[in-house]
Structure formats: C-alpha cells, structure tokens
Specification:
This protein is mainly beta. It has 2 helices and 36 strands. The strands form 5 sheets. It has a 25-stranded antiparallel β-sheet that branches. Strands 1-6-7-4-5 form a 5-stranded mixed β-sheet. The chain has a two-stranded antiparallel ribbon with strand order 2-3.
Length: about 725
C-alpha cells in the first residue's frame, strides 16, 4: 500500500503523491505547510535554485522559468505584475492566487493587470525558503480564483542568531523611437533574526531606487501642425500613426519593512504574527521627440496621461495559530491588507506649464483593502488523509477622484466619479485522499461557496446624483477528483478533474466605462464564471529529477472578459443613448486545451543541470453571442507556444554559471485578433530572450553574482515596451 501522508516540503518522501520539478536544498517549512494536501500538478522552486539561476531583484522574478507562466514585470519597481498561465492571459489577475506563508497577496478587488496585480513587494527574494506553484483548480482547499494557478511562497524563520545584507545594482540602456535613456537602479536589503527559546523573530528591510524605461508612447494619427521629429509607424490594427514621444518614464523609491514573529506554545502548537509595511513614491517624466519651428521641444495634451505622482503606504497583517500531531494537523490564520494611503495625481493643465503645477486630478484609494479568515485541518487514519476547512473574506474598493488647482500639492476640490463597493465570500470544503489499492490513490473533494456583493455606488460626474447599485448574491458548488496510479516506483499517471466558480470582483462589478467624453455606469449584474478543467499527467521521477508530460483542457462558461458591446449611457442632460464600447461582460464560453512538457535533470551530464519546458495551448472563444467575430480566435495574451530552458554548469562547488532562454509566440490583445501588427506600442509580439548569470562564493560569508537579462537585446512589446538588455550585479553577506 502506498503511504499518502502529506508531502511536507521539508521532508518529501520519494514516493509521496506530490511532484517537485525543481530540485535542490529542501526548504525549512513548518510541518503543516501542506495541510490541504493538494493533488494538483506542483512545481517547487527552492532558495538555492533561485540564487543560482535567476537574476532576481524582486520575488516574482523567481517564477521567470516556471512552466507555462509569464510574469508581466515591465521594470524593476513595477507594482503591476500579474501572471499569465496555461489558459489565462495577463488581464486575468483574479484567476490566480498568490500566498506568502498563508497570507493572501492577490488583490482580488479587480481582474486586471493594473491595480488588481499581486502585492509581490511584501516578500524579498532573500526571505524565500521555497515556492510551490499549483496548476489548475483541482484542490478543494482553494477558491475558484485558482482556475489558472496557485502560488504558495514559504519564507524562512531563524533557529539561531542570523544576519545578512545584500547590495544590488542594475543598469539598462534603452533606445526606441528616438528616445535614448540610461537607466540605473540600486537596491539594498538586510535582515536580522534570532531564536530566544520558544520565540523566533526576524526583521527584514528592502530599499529600492529604480529608473524604468518608458511604459507608454504618445501617438497620433498625424503630426501636430508646425512640428517636426515625429516618427512614422503603424498601430496594432495596421493603421498609419506618428509617435510623438515617450511617457510614464518611472522613477520609483520603494521601501518594504517586515517583522515576523513565531512562538512555540508547546511542542505541537505555534502562534505567529507578521507585520508588513510597503512605501512607494513614484514620479514620472516625459521625453518628446517633437520640435517646434524654433527647434524647441514641443508637446500635446496626449502627453498628460504619462505624467503623474504616486504615493502609497500599505499595511499587511497576518496572525496564525497552528498545531500538529502524529495523526491530526490544523491551522487558523487571519490576514488583513490595508491601503493606508494611496494617491495618484495627474495634470490637466497644458504642458509645459503643467511641469510646475496647475490644474489636475487626484485619484485616491485610501480605505481599499481586504481581510481573510481560514480554518483548516488534516486527519490521517489508515489509508485516508481527510482534509477540511472553512473560509471567509471581505474585499472593499474605494476609488475617488478629485479636481485640484495644483496637481503637485494642492488642496483637493470637487469629487467626481467615485467607485465604491464590497464583496464577501464564505466557503466550506472537504477533501479525502484514499489509497484504496496498491499503487492507487483517489482524491475526492468538494467546495461550497456563498458570495455577496453590496455597498456598490457609482457617480459619473460631480453634478450627477449617482447610482446605488443593487445587492447581489450567488453560490457555487465545485466538485474535484484526482486518480493517481503508480505502476512502478519512478512512474506516475495522474488524471484530475475540477470545477471552479469564480465570482465577479468588486472592480468588475462597479468600474466606470468611458464612452467618448462621457463616463458610463458598469454592469452590476455580472454572473460568476464557471470553469471545468481536466489534466492527464504522465511523470517519471528519480533521484536526479523528473520528466512530465501533461495534457490539459478547460471550458469556462460566462467567462468574465472585457469585450465590445452595446451599453446604455446616461448623457449630461439626463437622456440615455446606446453606445458601442468595451467593458466587462459575461462571454458565453471559452475553451482551452493543450500539452505541456516539463523536464528537470540534475547532473544531466556531470556538473551540468538542465531545466526546461514547452507548452502548446489552443485557447479560443468558442461561443460569443455579443461579439460573433471572436468565435474561433485566440484568447487575449494566451499564445500558442511558450517555452523556456535553463542550463547550469557547476565547474566547482563555489561557482555556478547559468544560461537561460524564454520564448513566446505571437499573441493578441483583442478577442477577434484584429490587432494584426505586433511590433508596435500596444501590440503583443513574439519574443525570444536569453539571460545569463554567474555566481561565486567568495568566502563562507560572502557571495557575488553578475547577470545579464535579455542579452540579445530583443525589443518587444506586450502592450507596453519591455526591458532591453540590462546588467545586474550583487554582493551578499551573511553572518
């Protein structure tokens, strides 16, 4: 009979029903880190692998070479870095769940690649013990937001006095559309911790000052009158345009401070608390290529949106109590994420005068945030591991825009276009892993969820009295099943099925849509999207690594996607007209199927490790009654092909040399794939990027690393321009 005890990260048995793609030093995780015993295909990346192979400046970099994933990190300091998965694109942030030690980092206040992106900045790369990536909604322990992936980050705690510090520098030279920039970045981080009997304490801090390449380019159908210097090109639809210059050239100053504590009440009972503080001060600048008749720089109102000041002060709290014994493990954890201060100010006054101040707007999100509460347990008896739990959460979105006479530091004036709303979800789940016969494990699970949206309010103009949106409620039942067969010790065949219900986020329900110069109220009656997912995985694993082949299939009904359709718009005079615009709607059905090959072999040849993956996906709209032109077309930002490869040579125990490559085939921004021109701002291009990294252990206490990302200097767009060739060097000291 195959044992089916949960496969603890710190002590995974060779025959445990969990797979590890990236091998190396095992993480120091608490013994109930996998209390939910997930049956899904899992990739584990440990701290040693990250340090050796990845030029990691922030924690999301650690996932750069994970199978099928693309992280949209546009620059160092980018706060908006969602994940694209096997079947979902970069605009589907609510289709993934990101956790750090059980605290939710996913911002499920929306489903986009902007404000709803994960809060990666609360974890530093040096903190990480391991990262587990789960593929597909096959575990009952996770909400329907797991349609794409679940990422569980486990950080370390000290067992003795420890201290470490890292200094890092990065340099990028950017040239595009006659904008030429030298972009240095510096980062310093440090931590100190100790264990005082039953009490463990760790304090970490990271300070980053970064300069990014342009995030936007200002374009127009024709060059402004009496100017020279604009650049002829095409937009993504193939129409001729002129590039007038660059905007949103970010200068970030960011700080993350975190205090982690843990107290062992008894041998099997631990209490822990983590406090995190994130501070961001971002100021952008512009670079115009236009010149007036006298040869002086010129600009248009189109540059205004790329000029802003952003200030953020966010807090994170997590308190947990967990216990374990030979037969029973349990954990209760509550988390809170609060936007203490969040503002972005932009000018409406004409440039260049607006550089010094003048009229503008300030958008505030103070008061936005969420809290979660989870209780879960696992009971082991004979051939069964029975896991079960409950979950409650609440998300609150507060977005308010104010006019101001001085956008740089003026007093707030009239409020306009507030977006207010809340959602709440409660859930119960149960899952049983049963070794019913030699070499067979059957895992059956189910999750029942109850959802409510309330407090919705929209006001499109200061003169409009606004609309109180209706109360909404829905529920969902999600069954799960996985059957694993182990015909031989090194071989595994696993078939998984999962249904998932993903409820609308508060941002999807209550966001405001712009139609020309008029703001329109959204659709507050969106239905949950319901996914049916399946995977068949064949794996060979021995002491040197594994090879896995996965076939996957997903059908989503009522998919929540922004698409073009008719919308009733209330005019300033009170009349209503129907306009055609893009906004979040329930798309009848999408279908995604494909195959993923993942390989990880240590000592592929002596002293050389190889890790790589290739994914083919055919993700299409299969039914769309509102926009029939989308049927049969690829879903936005889900390409047919994704691949990566990592080769590491260890010529001596103190030296590691890594070469890596990342590839994505052509993908699209629009549902009907009408964006035919990819190599342009707002296009979605093919990319092939080569990265290099060298690490050297100088002494027992000091490590050095130098690396080059995008060594081939591929200038590609995923809507925004992505980093060109950049060099990173770091020095790490530990006590």
């Amino acid at each position: 009979m195959i044992p089916i005890l949960p496969a603890w990260t710190a002590e995974a048995a060779a025959d445990a029903p969990r797979e590890i793609l990236v091998t190396g030093q095992k993480a120091d995780a608490p013994p109930n880190a996998t209390i939910d015993n997930p049956p899904a295909t899992t990739v584990t990346i440990d701290a040693a692998k990250i340090a050796t192979t990845v030029n990691a400046v922030s924690v999301e970099d650690a996932l750069k070479y994970a199978p099928s994933l693309i992280i949209r990190k546009r620059s160092i300091g980018d706060n908006f870095a969602p994940i694209a998965t096997r079947t979902s694109g970069l605009g589907g942030s609510a289709r993934s769940l990101i956790y750090a030690d059980g605290a939710l980092l996913s911002a499920l206040i929306g489903n986009n690649n902007g404000s709803a992106s994960p809060k990666w900045n609360l974890v530093a790369p040096e903190e990480v013990a391991s990262i587990d990536v789960l593929y597909g909604p096959f575990s009952a322990a996770y909400a329907g937001n797991s349609i794409g992936t679940v990422v569980n980050i486990t950080t370390r705690m000290p067992d003795k006095l420890e201290a470490q510090a890292t200094v890092l520098t990065n340099y990028q030279h950017h040239e595009q559309y006659n904008t030429v920039l030298d972009l240095p970045t510096g980062q310093a981080s440090a931590s100190i911790g100790n264990k005082f009997g039953p009490l463990s304490v760790l304090l970490t801090a990271t300070h980053t000052v970064s300069n990014a390449q342009p995030i936007v380019y200002v374009t127009a159908a024709s060059a402004p009158a009496a100017t020279t210097g604009s650049i002829a090109t095409f937009n993504r639809l193939g129409a001729a345009i002129r590039v007038l210059g660059a905007g949103d050239i970010d200068h970030h100053v960011e700080d993350t401070i975190k205090l982690k504590t843990a107290y062992d009440l008894t041998d099997g009972l631990r209490a822990s608390y983590t406090l995190g503080l994130f501070l961001d001060s971002t100021r952008t600048r512009l670079d115009t290529v236009l010149r007036d008749a006298a040869g002086n720089p010129a600009s248009t109102s189109g540059f205004n949106s790329g000029l802003y000041l952003r200030r953020q002060r966010h807090f994170s709290h997590a308190a947990a109590l967990d216990g374990h014994s030979s037969a029973f493990d349990w954990k209760v954890i509550g988390t809170l994420y609060a936007y203490g201060k969040d503002s972005q100010a932009s000018p409406t006054a004409a440039l260049p005068g607006a550089f010094a101040g003048g009229a503008g707007t300030v958008q505030r999100q103070d008061g936005t945030g969420w809290w979660t509460l989870d209780a879960k347990a696992a009971w082991r008896s004979g051939d069964h591991v029975l896991s079960f739990g409950g979950h409650v959460d609440r998300y609150k979105l507060v977005t308010q825009t104010y006019a101001t006479a001085d956008w740089i530091g003026g007093v707030l004036g009239t409020r306009s276009a507030p977006l207010l709303g809340k959602t709440r979800t409660a859930a119960l789940w149960v899952q049983d892993a049963w070794a019913f016969a030699p070499a067979f494990v059957l895992t059956l699970g189910a999750r029942q969820e109850w959802w409510r949206a309330y407090g919705g309010f929209n006001q499109t103009t200061a003169a409009n009295p606004g609309i109180a949106q209706p109360l909404r409620s829905a529920d969902g039942f999600s069954p799960k099943a996985t059957l694993e067969w182990r015909p031989a010790p090194a071989w595994s065949v696993k078939a998984s099925f999962g249904q998932a219900t993903r409820f609308p986020t508060v941002g999807e329900l209550y966001q405001v849509t712009t139609v020309g110069t008029v703001l329109a109220n959204p659709n507050p009656n969106l239905r949950p999207e319901r996914a049916r997912s399946g995977e068949l995985a064949l794996q060979y694993k021995d002491a040197r690594g594994l090879v896995r082949l996965s076939l996957f299939d997903e059908v989503v009904k009522d998919a929540l996607i922004s698409q073009t359709g008719p919308l009733a718009v209330v005019q300033p005079n009170g009349s209503t007209l129907t306009a055609t615009t893009s906004f979040v709607q329930n798309l009848d059905r999408t279908r995604a199927r494909g195959v993923e090959l993942a390989i990880d072999r240590r000592d592929f040849v002596p002293t050389v490790d190889f890790q790589g993956s290739v994914t083919y996906a055919d993700a299409i709209t299969s039914k769309d009654s509102v926009f029939p032109a989308a049927v049969g077309r690829l879903l936005p930002s889900v390409p047919h092909w994704k691949a990566n490869a990592v080769l590491t040579w260890r010529p001596t125990p103190r030296v590691g040399l890594t070469a890596a490559a990342r590839y994505s085939s052509r993908n699209f921004a629009t549902l009907d794939n009408s964006d035919v021109f990819a190599d342009t701002y707002q296009g979605f291009d093919t990319f092939f990027v080569v990265d290099l990294r060298a690490t050297v252990k100088l002494t027992e206490r000091i490590d050095a690393a130098i690396g080059i990302d995008n060594v081939n200097n591929n200038r590609y767009f995923l809507f925004h321009p992505f980093p060109q060739r950049s060099v990173t060097a770091s020095l790490h000291w530990k006590l």
